[in-house]
Amino acid sequence: MRVVVTGGAGFIGSALVRHLVGEAGAEVLVIDKLTYAGNLDSLASVAGKPNFHFFRADVTDTAQMAAALASFCPDQVIHLAAESHVDRSIAEASAFVQSNIVGTFSILEATRAYWMGLSLLARTNFRFVHVSTDEVYGSLGDFDQFYETTAYDPSSPYAASKAASDHLAMAWHRTYGLPVVVSNCSNNYGPCQFPEKLIPLMVLNALSGKALPVYGQGQNIRDWLYVDDHVRALVLIASRGRPGRKYNVGGRNEQRNIDVVVSICALMDELHPAGMPHSQLIRFVVDRPGHDERYAIDAGRIECELGWQARENFASGLRKTVCWYLDNEWWWQPLRQQACGGERPGLLKEVV
């Protein structure tokens, strides 16, 4: 199997590449621009393997994408390259429009041209997997869940840009026949996540005795998915997903943000005691605009059709994640200043 992974030096992308190159033995080409969130250190364990290839390029450059596909001759393209941080999208939306909308258009067009030149059998077996987010669906009430048929209602510039890219991907299937499959995942966590995201930010701030900033009163609820579980889902979707189909991928692990932070504090008290409970570092800060109240994924389709299930519950996955950050300072230390020095990027910091 020959697989192109766009955004393969990012958090989810690098986890997927490590699995494909290592356990699956696939021939993999990573295409990544290496922006602030792209990190070749996340690929260090597979970088020397003969079935790993890297091409530094901007996914918005259609000519470069076309040349890369023509040279590598993939059986699958898994498209993860995207700007993904909501706070950054509020502060500067233009990068999200370029990467997430224009970039998706570019890779779709390059892939369509490549796919049209394949034999009939190769065209039938080919897959383009567009990896998206549950944030396209907007905010839930107390009891509902997101289904693949849920209407889109994005709240942030990030979510809106991903919603647009989802529509582009599906349109390229319906109009041109490109065998596209779309996945919409819940909040990922695990090793090699950029330190501005909630869980690594809290772990590293707790480690250094800094404040643990929580938006509002921490009542917003997310469904948490361990990144290796997501990787297994993407491999199944790429190999057995039906073209024109969407698959929601969630961990069935709903947690309030404040409960996530308190759980991290308890693990830090156990694994790295500091002479006082780490929960004393929690500070409530002004909420961000358009902050969705609750997300929850119904993963029934991928569970029933493809036989996938999350292996990690939140407690087991969080312990693995905290331990990884405690053991891998070499990876995260150079990134800390890029991650706003331990603060939530781009927004007001007053205590409420």
Walk me through this protein's architecture.
The protein is α/β, with parallel strands linked by helices and 352 residues long. 41% of the residues lie in helices and 16% in strands. The protein is built from 12 helices and 12 strands. The strands form 3 sheets. It has a 7-stranded parallel sheet with strand order 3-2-1-4-5-6-10, sandwiched between helices. Helix 7 packs across helix 9. It is globular. The protein starts with a strand and ends in a 20-residue tail after the last helix.
Biggest sheet statistics: 7 strands, parallel
Gyration radius from CA atoms, angstroms: 20 Å
Number of strands: 12
Q: Structural class, from helix and strand content?
A: alpha/beta
Helix content: 40-55%
Strand content: 15-25%
Which tags fit this structure?
single chain, three-stranded mixed β-sheet, alpha/beta, seven-stranded parallel β-sheet, 12 helices, disordered C terminus, 352 residues
Brief characterization of the structure:
This protein is of the alpha/beta class and 352 residues long. The chain is built from 12 helices and 12 strands. Helix 4 packs parallel to helix 6 (157-176).
